[in-house]
Amino acid sequence: MKSHAFVREKIPVVIQSTSTKAAKCGEDVDPPLDFGRYIYFQFIPTLIYRDDYPRNKKIRWNFVLSNFANVAGAVMYAYYIFIRFCIPVFRNFNHIHVNPKTFVSSMFSCILPGALLFVMVFFALLHCWMNAFAEMLRFADRMFYRDWWNSTNFSNYYRTWNVIVHDWLYSYIYKDLYTFWGAKNRHTAMMVTFILSALFHEYIFCCMFRFFYPVLFVMFAGMGVCLIFVTQQKSSPPWNVLLWTSLLLGIGMLMCLYTMEYYARFNCPPSANEILLDFVIPRSWTCYVVDDSSNVSSLL
Hints:
By secondary structure, the chain is mostly helical. It is 67% helix and 3% strand.
């Protein structure tokens, strides 16, 4: 994403510089590319490339250390949440019969730990980690998020939850599509932007879990887009309650389904003989549970 931003911003500058140099018949012209600025851009917490950024005069090392300590504390707390709430529920996935009743019970049991992890990820990554690196590099633009918790519609939530990624999507995907397709296809440009973002998030999950289970993609690109239109231009407090309720239910479902599939990969036989098919076919859908008392296999 950073490399794309760099190329996207510097191509017009390179073309203009080449034309200027040709017009001046080979006279010395300032180079359009600065490798030092590119390296600095790779480490600062932003995805929008600029030749110059606002800079602080000094580094507050106490602030840096405190933020890294908060990140370490958040990681340990997240580990405790998994050990205490998630693993006991799902580690024996293939030893019990999963029916709609137990699935709903498991999903609701994941809402509280899922909400805690949601807040921990936001605090550790978007607040502490970003502020620590920004402080070390004297990067003064600290607008990493806005007050997303006060949002009354999903459109505002997506714009304020992660300002860094939103700005990149808006600047390099949505604006280009909007310019290319025109104002009449504004909603199409928005849909394509959401689908690309959902694919990128699903790719991260595939790398983390080492299996393909597009629950996040369906919820992000499907329900997420629908809720944007349902809650559009809503500003009363009850809609904020609806937003938080939807987030909590969605997080609980994500944790339940992904954790269930994760332990099914350990406890259940492969769903297909070929490696590629086994990678994309969920084992939790094809896992058989053996009842020791009756010695009968039942399909999950």
